[in-house]
Write a structure and sequence with these properties.
The protein has about 70 residues and is mainly alpha-helical. The chain has two helices and no strands. The protein has one domain. The mean pLDDT is about 80.
């Protein structure tokens, strides 16, 4: 199951701020209040939203390249 399918939006946690600087400070305070595990979970969620989730391709791709050795006697 995808992580995004298990999450719900908390509609009571929205706030309206008057400037971008105030919003940046609120963002910093929010993320500093989270544990490293919660931050990594949020990062993984954003990765899945941007790049999708496919359990078949979740492993690293192996690439094999054959290079010919030239100039050796």
């Amino acid at each position: 199951m995808r992580t995004i399918d298990t999450l719900r939006m908390d509609r009571e946690e929205f706030s309206v701020l008057s400037s971008f600087e105030e919003a940046d400070e609120a963002d910093k305070a929010y993320w500093h209040s989270k544990t490293p595990h919660e931050r990594m979970a949020a990062l993984e969620l954003m990765r899945q939203i941007n790049y999708g989730y496919d359990p078949i391709t979740e492993r690293l791709q192996r690439v094999l390249e054959i290079a010919e050795l030239t100039g050796v006697n």
